[in-house]
Amino acid sequence: MQSEQLVQVVIAALEDMKATDITSIDVRDKTSITDFMVIASGSSSRHVKSLADTVLEKVKAQGVKPIGSEGLDSGEWGLLDLGNVVVHVMQPATRQFYDLERLWQGAEQSRAQHADE
């Protein structure tokens, strides 16, 4: 699966589970560790864990074998390493503290478009 397609699967899974502030950052020109970072917020530790679990379920259904995951025990921040895409799911305060968007400033950034219902 191409990196761009994997990003779309991840974003769709996050949107289905009502993640907020979903951001995709193209880091191909910034690092060799991954092509894209997807960052999203969850409203609670349980929500963060559910978001991560759903993303894992959806990418596995597409034949993608995740490399690993970190941080899901606390529920403040979960990292999913999908190879060409790294997914960060965080509670808002944790996201603000780490400010990954600013860290990768200068990388091409786009916010997922989804309708508020």
From TrEMBL:
* Alphabetized InterPro entries for the sequence: Iojap/RsfS/C7orf30, NT_sf
**What GO molecular function annotations does the UniProt record carry, in alphabetical order?**
ribosomal large subunit binding
User: Does Transit peptide show up as a keyword for this record?
Assistant: no
Q: Which Gene3D superfamilies match?
A: Beta Polymerase, domain 2
Record localization:
Cytoplasm
Q: Name one GO cellular component term.
A: cytoplasm
Q: Name one Pfam family in it.
A: RsfS
Keyword Cell inner membrane annotated:
no
Which keywords belong to this entry? Answer: Cytoplasm, Repressor, Translation regulation
The UniProt entry's GO biological process terms, in alphabetical order, are: cytosolic ribosome assembly; negative regulation of ribosome biogenesis; negative regulation of translation
The main place the protein resides is cytoplasm
What the entry lists under PANTHER family is as follows:
IOJAP SUPERFAMILY ORTHOLOG (PTHR21043), MITOCHONDRIAL ASSEMBLY OF RIBOSOMAL LARGE SUBUNIT PROTEIN 1 (PTHR21043:SF0)
Record's function text: Functions as a ribosomal silencing factor. Interacts with ribosomal protein uL14 (rplN), blocking formation of intersubunit bridge B8. Prevents association of the 30S and 50S ribosomal subunits and the formation of functional ribosomes, thus repressing translation.
Which NCBIfam families does the entry mention?
rsfS_iojap_ybeB
Q: Which family does it belong to?
A: Belongs to the Iojap/RsfS family.
Q: Which HAMAP family match?
A: Iojap_RsfS
Oligomer status and interactors: Interacts with ribosomal protein uL14 (rplN).
This chain belongs to the protein called Ribosomal silencing factor RsfS
